[in-house]
Amino acid sequence: QVQLVESGGGLVQPGGSLRLSCVASGIIFSINDMGWYRQAPGKQRELVAVITSAGSTNYADSVKGRFTIFRDNAKNTVDLQMNSLKPEDTAVYYCNANSARYAYWGQGTQVTVSS
Fold first, then answer.
1. Which candidate, 38, 19, 22, 15, places its Cα nearest to that of 87?
2. Distances (CA, A) of 86 to 63, 78, 111
3. What pLDDT does 114 receive?
4. Which residue, 104, 109, 39, is CA-closest to 80?
């Protein structure tokens, strides 16, 4: 089992920045990819960014150039730096970690972009 705990959400004005953090604990050696997903009200959960254990990254088109994903394998953390935030970035953001067999999810953290 892997447990994921997120932090760093909140309310920010358009154009502002937030940094989300996720700490993994448990059977860490089994984790391959880690990433962030988000779900806005009335919409499906969508991929925001993912990073492999080797450091390769992939981003949703809507966040490219604004968001950056970081991973520290020694600390078992994955962070999401979000800059130039837009109202359409408002959502619950979920940390995700995948092993060969399972997908693990955090409890989610709310990000609201509003003036």
1. 15
2. 10, 22, 11
3. 96
4. 109
Instruction: List Cβ<8 Å contacts ≥24 apart for 101-110.
Output: 102/2, 104/1, 104/2, 104/3, 104/4, 104/24, 105/4, 106/4, 106/5, 106/6, 106/22, 107/5, 107/6, 108/6, 108/39, 109/6, 109/7, 109/8, 109/9, 109/20, 110/9, 110/10
Q: Give the distance from CA 65 to its chain's centroid.
A: 15
Look up residue 22 and give its two tokens.
């996720």
Alpha-carbon gap, residue 37 to 113, rounded angstroms: 16
Let me know if 72 is exposed, middle or buried by CB neighbors in 10 A (0-12, 13-18, 19+): exposed
Confidence at residue 29, expressed as pLDDT on a 0 to 100 scale: 76
Residue type, 18: L
The answer to whether the CB of 95 falls within 8 A of the CB of 6 is yes
Percent of the chain with pLDDT over 70: 100
